[in-house]
Amino acid sequence: MKIIKLSATDSTNSFLKDLSQNSPLENFTTVVAINQTNGRGQQQSKWVSEPYKNLTFSTFISFKDLKVFQKKYLNFAISLAIYDVLLTKNLAKIAIKWPNDILSATHKICGILIENTFSGDKIKNSFIGIGLNVNQEIFPEHLTNATSLKLETGLEYNLDRLLNTILVAFQKNIKLLERQEFDFLEERYLNVLYKKNTPTMFKNSKGEIFMGIIFGISYHGKLQIQLEDDRILEFGIKEVSFL
Ligand code: BTN
């Protein structure tokens, strides 16, 4: 596994994408930065991380035969890899909040940004961006929901070692994906999904608040919510939020 360490870059996802355009990359080539000056999150948000304290990295994976409609399984494989590594750290209840925030109890400890290139109906290259809060103890005021491994356990972690452990977990789960163990990945993902089987308040994109229970993930990766009248509605990432 090739690991490129940078002291600073705008975004490791952007850096890795540029790199892949200039030279062919081995699978699991990883770019890790001490400082990201323009870290990107989902839905055009920013990812802010204190230099030296956390892991901000991106990993390249190219696929031969992963169909665009199977994209959700890639998300399951990556989220579960992070989940499994965190599980070994004795945190408060770890869960995956759909689609791929990793929570310790109710607080976000890791964000994932997967960006893909496509060729016809297949996913060609994936740039897996991970922001894992490790040793940061103080977060900016607006990030009220953020936590870190250190805040949760009181321990300080070695970033290089943690990165290696995560990359090994990625390799293991990507193997499952390549072997098309889709049902296994989906079942595991659903089992550890935040608020699964719990009546929960959601807000749709019109601002309407409603109560429902997470039912599952649709064929196309949308969140299925069962309403009180038993109807099941499907939501894309921008179409619903948890309250
Ligand atoms: C999110 O929860 O919104 C996703 C955050 C992803 C952040 C990581 S940090 C490393 C990689 N480079 C980026 O610019 N973003 C991802």
Automatic annotation (TrEMBL):
Gene Ontology molecular-function annotations: biotin--[biotin carboxyl-carrier protein] ligase activity
Keyword Mitochondrion: no
GO cellular component: cytoplasm
Keywords, in A-Z order: Ligase
Entries under InterPro entries matching the protein: aa-tRNA-synth_II/BPL/LPL, Biotin_CoA_COase_ligase, BPL_LPL_catalytic
Residue ranges occupied by any BPL/LPL catalytic domain in the UniProt entry: 1-178
Superkingdom classification of source: Bacteria
Pfam family, one: BPL_LplA_LipB
NCBIfam families, A to Z: birA_ligase (TIGR00121)
PANTHER family assigned: BIOTIN PROTEIN LIGASE, BIOTIN--PROTEIN LIGASE
The protein's name in its UniProt record: Biotin--[acetyl-CoA-carboxylase] ligase
Organism, scientific name: Polaribacter butkevichii
